[in-house]
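tool=predict chain=A
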Amino acid sequence: MINNKQLPQVLGITGGIGSGKSVVSRILSIMGIPVYDCDREAKRLNETDLVIRKGLIELVGEQVYDSDGKLNKVVLASFLFASSSNATQVNAIIHPRVKEDFLRWKAIHKQTQWVGIESAILYESGISDLADKILTVMAPEEVRISRVVRRDKASCKAVQLRMAQQMSEEEHRMKSQFLLENDGRRALIPQILDILAFLLCPSRS
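tool=predict ok
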């Protein structure tokens, strides 16, 4: 992680599938901390960024984009999950462009003390290198599974397989400066306010 005081400083927001990262990011945005959503912006860039388009076509083939120019998610997913090498090559095309896009977005918010960047793969993508502090949103496994089953209409087994491919909770705990429990019992707002008090108080940061 970088460690400088050039504004805005960056709060990395991460956590496993179903932990509630997006809810926390929305609350932070309402409280005055703009948040860049890597997943959403990557989807946009996959269809609008010419470097990504060229790279994916060269790697996967013309069929990775439909005739109307839209990314063919089925074709890309099939290529991605065929091997870990394929996933690494795709990520090497997309992640650097997302990081560049974030830095442009960050520059627009240069009058802000802190901005956030949300990503489920904050470490795996190398985006954690851009963060001054990292917040991990936590929730019990059974709660996360229930949320994703309802949200994605997926089976428990499918969700568990996706969870197994992500960084473990223990690894997240070791790497994060802030942990936020989103278990449905503890209120989020007081926890977020405590984190903001720490971030925005120079004597404590």
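Residues 40-108 form a domain with the Rossmann fold fold (CATH 3.40.50.300). The beta strands are 9-14, 35-37, 114-118, 133-138, 178-181.
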